[in-house]
Amino acid sequence: MVDAPNYRVVDSADVAENAQIGDGSSVWHLAQVREDAVLGKNCVIGRGAYIGTGVTLGDNCKVQNYALVYEPAVLESGVFIGPAVVLTNDTYPRAINPDGTQKAASDWDAVGVTIKTGAAIGARAVCVAPVTIGAWSLIAAGSVVTKDVPDHALIAGVPAKQLGWVGKTGHRLIERDGALVCPDTHDRFSEVDGALVAENQGA
To answer: How many whole angstroms separate alpha carbon 136 and alpha carbon 144?
Structure first.
């Protein structure tokens, strides 16, 4: 599988035989892709990154150097994971059980982080499972996310809080003529009950 011509896996990467790697994807030096993981088309897995067992990535995702994506995370298409980001999977972590015996996989239930289309997680941010990161949202570097994030939300801090809204280019929306407007695409939005609603696209 590693020798397939439609994607690239460098020699120092560790990719499980039953992992699925999409056309055009690249897995770089010292990265590990575990059993039953599924990478879509044109994904990039950076140096030293970890993709856990059964993790799913959609098309065109980028996981930067030394990021840790623990199972059962699900990333939709076009998700950006910055350097050294951690997606956790254990709400109540312990190495041992109350009787002192070492915990096994059967002693706890893994919970995952779900990241919707186009969202971006900044460098060294931590997303504490279970949590859902909304489409096209932006998590600032170093943030600790403990609650679900709305679509297009701009999130920062420890613990992370919403600071505003961003458009599909990642730039903060600005108020103009009673609407929230993307300075790049000129898409217009309204905030309704804590959510962003598109008024038009590309006008």
So the answer is: 18
Q: How many CB atoms lie within 10 A of CB 124?
A: 16
Residues 106 and 187 occupy one common structural domain: no
CB neighbours of residue 158 within 10 Å: 12
Sequence-separated (6 or more) residues with CB below 8 Å from residue 190: 179, 180, 196, 197, 199
Predicted model pTM: 0.93
For residue 140, what pLDDT band results from cuts at 50, 70 and 90?
Answer: very high
Domain count, the chain: 2
Q: Are residues 55 and 113 in the same domain?
A: yes
Range of the domain at 183: 168-203
